[in-house]
Amino acid sequence: MNTTTPPSHFLREHIAEDLARGAVREVVTRFPPEPNGFLHIGHAKSICINFGLAREFGGRCHLRFDDTNPEKEDPAFVAAIKEDVRWLGFDWGPHLYHASDYFERLYQFAVELIHKGKAYVCHLSADDLRATRGTLTEPGVESPYRNRSVAENLDLFARMRAGEFAEGECTLRAKIDMASPNINLRDPVIYRILKRPHQNTGDAWCIYPTYDFAHGLSDALEGITHSICTLEFADHKPLYDWFLEQLDVPCHPQQIEFNRLNLTFTVTSKRKLKTLVERGIVDGWDDPRMPTLSGLRRRGVPPAAIHQFVERVGVSRSESCVDMALLESCIREELDRTAPRAMAVLRPVRLVITSYAEEAEEFFTLANHPKDPSLGSRQVPFCRELWIEADDFALAPPKGFRRLTIGAEVRLRGAYLVTCTGVEQDAHGAVTTVFCTHDPESRGGNAPDGRKVQGTIHWVSARHAVPLTARLYDRLFTTEHPGADGDFLADVNADSLTICQGWGEPMLAACPAEARFQLERLGYFCADRFDHTPAQPVFNRIVGLRDSWSKEASRRP
Ligand code: ATP
Ligand code: MG
C-alpha cells in the first residue's frame, strides 16, 4: 500500500475532536451490512471508513449483520461478506454480531415503549397504513388504534409474538407525531409479523423489528460511539435519536452521515446486481466484471488499490459519481509497482528464425521488474521457433508502424535483433509463419553497433510455451450512467468478455492462483482464483496498460 498521508475529512476531524474534548474515550464503530447480497465497491468505502477510522484512532470496529428482514437474507451471503471484509485487510476480532442476537432485548425495549405509552398495536392493513401516512405537504391521519390502553397493547403484542395473528394483520407502531414534517416520525412501524424462518434464529420468532428500531438500539447495546452511515439515513436520524431518548439504554451513539460512493459504467445497487446474476447476464456474484468485492478479487484487483481509491475519492456530504477511470488508474498504479513482468502471446502467429540452429536452445535472464530489483529475475527459454502477436507483423504496414514487416529489423525483447525475410500464407492470404534471420552479435537484444531498429516486440519460445487461456474483460455497461434513460439492462455491454487461447512463458503455469503479472505490452493479468491450474493456466485481464476508453489510446489486442 502507498504510504501517503491521507487527506483529512470531516469524519476524521469530528472523531479527533470528540477524543480531544473527552466526549469519548475509545472510538467504537461498526460496519452493518444486511446479508441480502454480496458486498460491492460502495461498501468498500464504508468498510474502509469504519474499520479504518477505528484502527487509526486505536479503537475497534464491529462487524454487525443487520439481519432484520428474513425474506431476503441467506447464510451464504453472511459467509461471503465475512470473506470480503477480511480480504480487504480488516479484522473484527471477537466483535462479530447480528441484530438478531438482540431480538429478545429488542422485544423488551418494545415492551418498555408500550409501558411508557409510546407504542401501540395497530390493526390497519399495509394499504391503510400507507394511505394515512400523509405526504410531504399533508400531515398523516391518526390510527383508530392509537389510543389503546397499555394493558391492551401489552396483551396484543404478546399475542403477536405467540403467532396468534396472520402476516399483515397488525403491527407495533411507535406513538410519535402523525403531523410531524418528517414522515419517518409519523408513528413508524417497529415490529411486523413475518412467519418465515430466519437465517440466524430459525423458527424462534414470527415478529421482526424494523431496521430503524433495531439499528440504533443495537448500536447502543454494543457501545458504538460513532454510527457512521450514508446520507439517505439523514432523515432517519431524528427517529434514531427518539428511540434512544425514550428508552433506558447504556449509551447514546451519534449517527453521522457521509456521501455514498457511486461509480460510472457500473451499478452499485444490490437489487440490480442481483438481477444481473439471476438473469445469467454475468456468471455469478463473483464474475470478474461485477463491481462486487468478490468480483474485483476474482478479476485480480489488489486490495491495496481499493484502499487507495477510497482515500482518493474522499468523504463529503454531497452526492457524486466517481469516474471508473479513477479506480482503473489506482489499480494500474498499484500493479505497476508490485506486479512482476512476464511474456505471453494472446493472438499467436509463428515466427521461425532460419539462421538459428534447429536443435539449439538458450536461456535469457530477464528482470522481473524494471524498477524493483527485489522482485528478482528469471530464465526465459528461447529457440528457433517462437510465437509472436499476429498484429506485431503487417504485410502492408500502415504509416508509422513500428513493428515487423518484410525487410524490417526489430528487437525480440531481451533476446536478439531479427530481420524479416518473408512469410508463408494460407489459402486465404492470412500469414501463418513469419521468417526471420537473427544477428548473433545482438545477444540480449543489444545492437553491437548501437543501430536503431523499428521497435521491440514480445515473444514466447514455441518449444517451451505453455498453453494459456486469457479472458479479456471490458466494462460491463456501455454508458456512463446505466439505466439513465430507462432500463439499465439495455445498457449492458454485449462485448464485455473476449476469450483468447494463447501461449505463455513457463513461469505462468508454475504460479499459484491469484498471482498477478504484467504481461508485457498486454496489460495486467491475474491467475484465476478458481480455474487456474499448472496444466491449464487461466488468466483474467485486470486492466489494460492504459485507459483504453480514452480517445488517444490504441485498442490492442
Ligand atoms: P440495501 O439496504 O438496499 O440492501 P445497501 O447497499 O444499503 O443496500 P447494506 O448492507 O444496508 O446495503 O449496507 C451496509 C452499509 O454499507 C451501510 O452502512 C451503508 O450505508 C453502506 N453502503 C452501502 N452502499 C454504499 C455506497 N455505495 N457507498 C458507501 N457506503 C455504502
Ligand atoms: Mg441498507
Count of discrete domains: 3
The largest β sheet comes out as: 7 strands, mixed
Q: How many helices in DSSP terms?
A: 13
Bound molecules: adenosine-5'-triphosphate, magnesium ion
Radius of gyration, in Å, reads 31 Å
Counting helices, strands and paired strands, the structural category is alpha/beta
Tell me the helix content.
10-25%
As residue ranges, the low-confidence spans are: 551-557
Enumerate the strands of the largest sheet in spatial order, edge to edge or round the barrel.
12-25-26-27-23-24-13
Distance between the termini: 30 Å
Described by the principal axes of the CA atoms, the overall outline is: elongated
CATH class of the largest domain: Alpha Beta
CATH topology annotation of the largest domain = Rossmann fold
CATH architecture assignment name of the largest domain: 3-Layer(aba) Sandwich
Report strand %.
15-25%
The CATH superfamily of the largest domain is: HUPs
Overall pLDDT: 96
Strand segment count? 27
